[in-house]
């Protein structure tokens, strides 16, 4: 057992796999990916939790359709029960502060809030805990890597060069702290005109494939620039719930299936000892 596992909070002991969804920069659809990935994992029969670790800009409560003022139940004056929505458990700093309150916190305060919410939540038995990380490669990412046994990271990007540069930094950061990269998700990869059907790569083409090739990781899936994804998120009914059998939902389910397969391979390799037979 690693040092991270020896010091793990009792509230995290029932979690089989922790998956972080991260991006090098904001605005690439990271939170949307985290929500729809979590729900797609649930649809495959897994028990799933979703933790909104974006302290400065929590958006998970809105995306899951939870009313402003929703608060977790406090147990034993310390621990909290997660909120349930669409069949998954979730928690967020957004449940603990006013929606209009600006989080003007320095690094240590942010890390402290992150650790307290994550560790003091009664997650129970989960197959997967999906963590929606804040953008960048800062204090929370390092704190998570040092204190929690993360199974792997999903990197979210868009095809444009500036986003790809930041995605590369994210991959490098996770590799330095020993967290496996499960793959890359490319958002806004293609726009199809709703009137004429013309397809156009507005933000560039092939970016995720180039990163995947450079770093030896997989492209888990590419999602179009689709107004329904944004509208359903704003309404609090994510696209995989609102249009469960649509093309976009199929892509999210495919991404989830590839994550499950990669996680199984990772866990299997960790359990299998290396045996060498030598002649005496």
TrEMBL record:
Alphabetic keyword roster: ATP-binding, Hydrolase, Iron, Iron-sulfur, Metal-binding, Nucleotide-binding
GO MF assignments: 4 iron, 4 sulfur cluster binding; ATP binding; ATP hydrolysis activity; ATP-dependent FeS chaperone activity; metal ion binding
Binding site for ATP: 24-31
Keyword Zinc listed: no
GO-annotated cellular components: cytosol
Matches recorded under Pfam families: ParA
Xref: InterPro entries: Mrp-like_CS, Mrp/NBP35_ATP-bd, NUBPL-like, P-loop_NTPase, YlxH/NBP35
Statement: the UniProt record of this protein carries the keyword Metal-binding: yes
GO biological process, any: iron-sulfur cluster assembly
Lineage top rank: taxon: Bacteria
Alphabetical list of PROSITE patterns matching this protein: MRP (PS01215)
Role according to the record: Binds and transfers iron-sulfur (Fe-S) clusters to target apoproteins. Can hydrolyze ATP.
Assembly and interaction partners: Homodimer.
Similarity field: Belongs to the Mrp/NBP35 ATP-binding proteins family.
Protein's name in the database: Iron-sulfur cluster carrier protein
Organism in which the protein naturally occurs: SAR86 cluster bacterium
Species lineage: Bacteria, Pseudomonadati, Pseudomonadota, Gammaproteobacteria, SAR86 cluster
